[in-house]
Amino acid sequence: MWWIGLALLVYYIYIRLSRGITRSATCLIGKTALVSGANSGLGYQTALNLASRGCKVIMADVADMEESKRNIIKYTNNPNITTKYIDMSSLKSVREFAADINQTEDRLDILINNAGIGVAKNNRTEDGLHPVMQINYFAHFLLTHLLLDLLKKSAPSRIVSTSSCMAFVNNLTVDNLNFNDKNNTFLEKITSYNNSKLALLIASDIFAEKLEGTGVTSNSIHPGFVSTPIFTNGYSVINNGLIKTVMRLYNWIYSKDPWEGSQTLVHVAVSKKLKDVTGKYFWDCKPYVKPMAAYNKEYCKQIWEATEKYVGLRPEEKL
Questions:
Q1: In the structure, what pLDDT confidence band is assigned to residue 179 with cuts at 50, 70 and 90?
Q2: Residue 213 above 80 pLDDT?
Q3: CA-CA distance, 186 to 174, in Å (whole number)?
Q4: Would you say the C-alpha torsion 6, 10, 16, 19 has a positive or negative sign?
Q5: Long-range contacts: 229-238, Cβ < 8 Å, 24+?
Q6: CA-CA-CA-CA torsion sign (166, 144, 278, 160)
């Protein structure tokens, strides 16, 4: 079985050599960025990178971010870092957060929709939504709508959403958009994550279409398999020891570290070459083909309209 080891070695070398690194040196002094899920992992590294460019960064998370904030200020000498609480598993919290941003900020140049979880212990949030779908998708859908006026006011501005290559392996339909993992199996847990990332990619594309001509662009990205809390925290709800061991081994050998994983996110958010690029999906800092479902306009429209109902979007809030 030597050829299996050889194949794994070749794969390891390939992913190491093909990892995209942004070369953009864009200065962001005078700009404001909002990063959800900013306390750790991709969000923290993205916030750190943006801050190093002189950007005012609003860190949004459910966790205590004071230590992360202090570290960013220390490493970048940029004191213009603020932290704001948001619970993506609560639509009420999202609305309160957005209202606060709209009242206290006079501009928003970059919105990074990054907060997410891999799996959830519970089957429903206080809003009656599946927690993975709500945190990864529904909450970002609502938040983006509520901040659109500020983004338009600050144009040219950008929306960047963290999707995943796992979106290619999905069973998303309008009927199971609010995923119901009745049997609570490992496969169903993974599928809910995959579906949420496809839904976010679809929403990113439709935002791009509906915002055409406003100066606001919308793109989605795959950061790679990254060693972040989104997966390490997920180990606790996996009961199968073999699956848990395989995931830990893959994570240890093949995954990117958070800095590497943040590169595509930062690239799409700041590169001057992408100023007018919208409605694209990026992988290792390059445009990439999307899941087939994302090209079905009628299907995507149905997902969008169903989402408007799930998040309780008001008539005046719709695009």
A1: confident
A2: yes
A3: 22
A4: negative
A5: 229/40, 229/41, 230/41, 230/116, 230/117, 230/118, 231/118, 233/117, 233/118, 234/117, 234/118, 234/119, 237/119, 237/120, 237/121, 237/189, 238/119, 238/186, 238/189
A6: negative
Q: How confident is the model at residue 267 (pLDDT cuts 50, 70, 90)?
A: very high
Q: Is 193 one of the annotated active-site residues of the chain?
A: yes
Rounded-to-integer distance, Cα 140 and Cα 159, Å: 11
> What distance in Å separates the CA atoms of residue 45 and residue 179, rounded to the nearest whole number?
30
| 232-254 residue pLDDT tens | 555 455 566 666 666 666 565 55
**pLDDT (tens digit per residue) in 55-92:** 999 999 999 999 999 999 999 999 999 999 999 999 99
Which H helix or E strand runs over 139?
Answer: helix 139-146
Helix, strand or coil, per DSSP, at residue 286 = strand
Q: Which entry of 11, 12, 75, 193 is annotated as an active-site residue?
A: 193
DSSP class per residue in 263-279: HHHHHHHH-GGGTT--S
Query: In terms of pTM, does the model score above 0.85?
Result: yes
**Amino acid letter for position 1:** M
Contacts of 177 (CB under 8 A, 6+ apart): 133, 195, 199, 303, 306, 307, 310
Decide if 216 contacts 159 (C-beta within 8 A).
yes
